[in-house]
Amino acid sequence: MAFDGIVTKAVSYELQTVLIDGKINKIFEPNKNEIILGIYAGGKNYALNICIDSNLYRIHLTTNSKANPLNAPNFCMLLRKHINGYKIKEIYSTPDLERIITIKLEGYNELNDLTIKYLIVELMGKHSNIILLNDKFFIIDSLRHLDVTSNSYRDILPAHEYIYPTNSKTNFYEITSSENLYNLILEANTSLSKFFTNKFTGFSNPFIKNVLKKLNINNQNFSKEDIDILFNYLCNILNNLDTNNITTVSYTNEKGKKDYVIDYVQKEDNLEINFFIDDFYYQKENSDNFSAYRNNLLKLISHVLKKYSYRLENINSKLKECANKDLYKLYGELITANLYKLKEVTSDKITLENYYENFQPIEIPIDTTTTYSNNAKRYFKKYNKLKNALEVVTLQKKETEIELQYIESIIYELDSAKTLEEVDDIYNELSDSVIFKDYIQTNKNKNNKKANTSSSPREFTVDGYTVLVGKNNKQNDYLTTKIADKNDIWFHTKDIHGSHVILRNPNSNVTIETLEKCAKLAAYYSKARLSTNVPVDYCQVKFVRKPNGSKPGMVIYTNNKTLYANPSVEMS
Predict the structure, then answer these.
(1) Do 247 and 314 have their domain in common?
(2) The domain boundary residue, chosen from 409, 435, 454
(3) Which of 119, 190, 239, 481 could cysteine-pair with 103, CB 3.0–4.6 Å?
């Protein structure tokens, strides 16, 4: 991300235009890395978001709300005690383009004395912090505590004097001419992008590369004239950060991801940079949270899938053993029938005539530690044991295969999920499932339990009809058993995991073309999305039934017909 010193300074200038003399009336701490200050200024309410996450650090106004914990964390309570009701008198960044913003606050303490306090926002990657100071610049407290024993060169602890971070880099404002800059570049003997990021405070690699691209200056091979142009352009940007001539520009980086930089471009709104950054990081956080949430669930589900797959292997192994049960019965019968002529056990094998197979000889293993009679009893016992086991194991196999089908349907749901809300629906489904009870921490507070279907089904219009498509198993159930009328038409891919599709209120004149379009939707929202000529069953909803105790999304149906469709969401 490109929240460098230049962005920091530009943001602070915009904040000055609306927040000076604003009163802090709300303070929240949504998570361990974030503080949100509610500020009333100029007849409007603003929310100042300060984030010190090591990857997403920034400060800006926000219009996106976040959930807050029921009990305010300690630092949030401390800020409420010390600065709630205070007015913002100054907002400024350091003159050397370091990513540090100071907010000077003025208000009355508990003794009704007018006091000054400072809120320092340090945006420096993993070393980012939010620090509250008194008027003597001594630390009252901070969101993160640091001391010299933790490899820090300064103490960030209560009652310690605050010291600004030190930096060995040069302040670009000290460069007096392009000739001076050119000599420094020649002395460094490196590329322009590396020179600026290594030499000067506040310059990020994306920023300087964007400037070079815009000015058509080669990163490696450049002339004195190129440096003259570059110096003047950078001075224009740095000297106009407090004007309407500077704004944010988005672009796609080398990894194919969206990023942004500050550039010399006319902006349309006084707070354009703040709200661009707000939207950028809001989308970035949602995307990251979605990926992490989905991947964690997928990891959990994969673990359960492996467990049930291993169980099915064991069941198949037992079934294979049960297949020999009749042979053990035969052994017992043959030994019993020949007991009158069998004497002492002298060998671990005997050969007897099999009267079931035209008296063909058959070799029978024998336990030499006991009698022939006991050997026969053991074979009969083994036969009965396997006979009983066959019934149990066959039932276990059927149940395990149903469980595996259900788990695979959950994996399909996760692959199809596009939003946090949809993943949350799947999490709620897992929370109610016995299969995942040992892996999901359920919320015991029923008042906080989320509804079964918090997101809405997908909705399409096909030839004037409304068509609904479920997003997950629970929603499929709700769609088919609660929303759909008995005369609506239900679609589902044949023997393939997919969504339930409902054609609403069809009349007797519904055409085969309309049915085919719905079948295309059912094929698209299924595991066979990348296939062609996908079989899709359809019937009226009154012929679809959900058996008692069946898994979410699983139904049985009759009176169905089958269409073959190529997956598509284009209904024209």
Answers:
(1) no
(2) 454
(3) 119
